[in-house]
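Reopening this ticket.

The earlier resolution said the output was attached, but the attachment link was broken on my side. Pasting everything inline this time so it's all in one place.
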Amino acid sequence: MTTPLVALQRRYAQMLPGLHRHLSRRFPQALWSGDPLRREVALTFDDGPDPRDTPALLDLLARHGVRATFFVCGTQLAVHPHLGRAMAAAGHQVALHGYYHKPFLNHAVASFLSELADLRCLVAEVTGQPNALIQDVRPPYGLFTPPVLDALLRHRYRPVMWSIVPFHWHQTFDEAVAQVERQLNPGALIVLHEGMRSGPDVVSLAQAVIERVQGAGFSFVTVEEMWTGRPAGPVAAGQAA
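Inline output:
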């Protein structure tokens, strides 16, 4: 039975493409998608590392020759540093998703900046990457305000959003895959979530996404590479799924 919350989230998912078009034009400083002239897609994973999902995802990505970007949480990485090391050793980008997966709110700017600095130091320690090169951050729940965005930019972080986000913990496998196929276009920035204990298995879902993206003639890039290939100015940021 569909609960009111699930119905609301599904309705929100349907509204996302239009919302994406509006917000990406309003806040072009964030990365919403890549170059619409390049047949490249970024596959990203939030909320890890997860002891069940991460090893299986790394095996899957290796089999398909795909490099992805993992937006990790500090509480998870502190408990599973070996999984963060495995991500980096396999050539994937390890980026920031907040230490405690709490919303970045106006009244708590100093707090989340301090937590982000701690997470950046932890990622640097675990992966061996220079601290200054760990810049990409996806705000938990994808929520930010102009003051929050200004604070991130001021402290040399690069805010990263998305163009395709299936709510797969409240969707069937077929619904999630169909959403990705429907919204797939050059420069798409896809986000899936680790650690969900409802909805389809994220590894099986990631495999289906990879097969459909590659079958459509797209190649995969990391978020770092997507920034590099992004044209200057707000036009690219305004491209929506």
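Reporter confirms the inline version is readable. DSSP finds ten helices and seven strands in the chain. Residues 45 and 182 are 20 Å apart (CA to CA).
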